[in-house]
Amino acid sequence: MSEVARLFGNRASAYASFRPSYPDALFTWLAKHSPGHQRVLDIACGTGQATRLLQRHFDRVLACDASLEQLRAADLQGIDSFVADACKQPLEDSSLDLIVVAQALHWFATPAFFTEVRRLLKPHGLFCAWCYNLLRIDETLDPLIDDFYWNTLGAYWPSGRASVDAGYSDIEPPFARLNPPELAIEQYWNLDQLLGYLSTWSAVQKLHHASGRAPLQEVAPKLSKAWGDGQQRRFIRWPLHFLAGTPCTPIRDCAAMQGKEAQ
Q: What is the tens place of the pLDDT at every residue in 249-260?
């Protein structure tokens, strides 16, 4: 099992409880731009934050993750779920209308992965990955979260996290890009929900394992003071960043498609 799968597997129940859900408008867009609605695969599905919403638009939803613990913690009723490496799928060629990767592409954005995506998708099939980085609340809380993220945890983020910080702008897929609309995750949370979410960060776990420190306990008093009444719900927003398109071969054909889109 990879380090990433082990980290998220260890916190599967918290991940299921505290990770935010995605906006409905995203899945409406995916359904509109998919060439069909028969089969969709959610790769590295975690505990199913994206998977469940795909059921509203597709006849058959498949979901895989490298962590069995994540799948066990997920609510995947009516979904075909299985353990699999992102780059080695036990599925037939040209069998999927859509492949999605939610908040996970940065762990395996390799040429081998994109080759597997091209193998799995039907002609004109759609691929869409997205990520979100730091949440935004207000001018008092944001600097505390930024300091926790960059300074306290900075050295403990696993390799690949820098792509999230870059909004996936550093990943160059071998296909023409589509531009989804500007979207964001938006939630109203109390302080306990915020702290629960922060506990799912992989760097929190790595720092604790490396030093024995409890970084969340260190920052919680500062956040509590700035938050005020812990039961008060505050508006929280995570902008989404996308990497989407229709994989094609050879790459020169992708360049031609991009030129047409720009006209």
A: 444 444 444 444
16 with 73: CB under 8 angstroms?
Answer: yes
- Domain extent, residue 159, equals 3-262
* CATH code, 194: 3.40.50.150
pTM: 0.87
Domain count, the chain: 1
- The tens digit of pLDDT for each residue in 118-172 reads 999 999 999 999 999 999 999 999 999 999 999 999 999 988 899 999 999 999 9
Three-state secondary-structure class, residue 169: coil
Q: Both tokens of residue 59?
A: 């006849």
